[in-house]
Amino acid sequence: MKKIGLVLEGGGMRGLYTSGVLDFFIDNNIYFSYIIGVSTGACNAISYILKQKEKSKDINANYVRDKKYISFKNLIKDKELFETKFLFEDISNKLCPFDYNAFYNSKETVVVCTTNCNTGKPMYFYKNKSDKFFEAIKASMSLPFVNKIVNLNGYPLLDGGITDAIPIKKSIFDGNSKNVIILTRHRGYRKNPTEIKKIADKFYPQYPKLIEALCNRHIMYNKTLEYIRMLERIGKVFIIAPSEPLKVNKIDRNPKKLADLYKKGYKDAEKIYFKLSQWLKKQIELLS
Question: pTM for the whole thing?
Fold first, then answer.
């Protein structure tokens, strides 16, 4: 579907909700030519493009309790709560092999959002324009305070969710006048301010723009929510979001809760399928 983008929010383990929605899309042959994702949203985009159903669910079911994946011991030892090496090398290359050739040869445009620590602004990487695209995904998944900064092509990068958690404006800028957005927060959610400046000053004294972005994160996120609600009212976006607050946090390690979240995403997509198909049909007719 040209000129209709797919925008995927991150959210750590809450991304299993998105994985369920995307697997429903696969089952019903719903595909987009442009996908932009943040953090786990970008990871989910990969499985979706390659039609690897249940891959995210299986990885988390099998390895979420592995101390190499997530543990506070990692944080103390290596300054990484998520061991990105285990995720991007051991799992992707050995335990659950990933077909890199098929991904790079796929026709879809895939974009990942990161945060440039120098500028405190979002920085985007395109699948077919970056020879280190998976490093960009790693950067997008690197949470502030609990993961190391990723240096890519001379840029210090962190979690894209800091500066553009729902990158709808980037999708529109890239030519997609209509978009489907998958959120990992329930409708009505608003991000509250946090007392983060002191800890940010301690962790990132050399990056004042990053500190500013961290302190203003709730403002930017809530403004984006208001923006997409306005776009929804005028028919320019179709939003898929949990109908109620999720009982899974960003670093949840309970396999059953994660499996249930995946099922919820699939069932929520099933419930709105008729409305979504009608909306997509109308947009395709308007854009043709």
Answer: 0.90
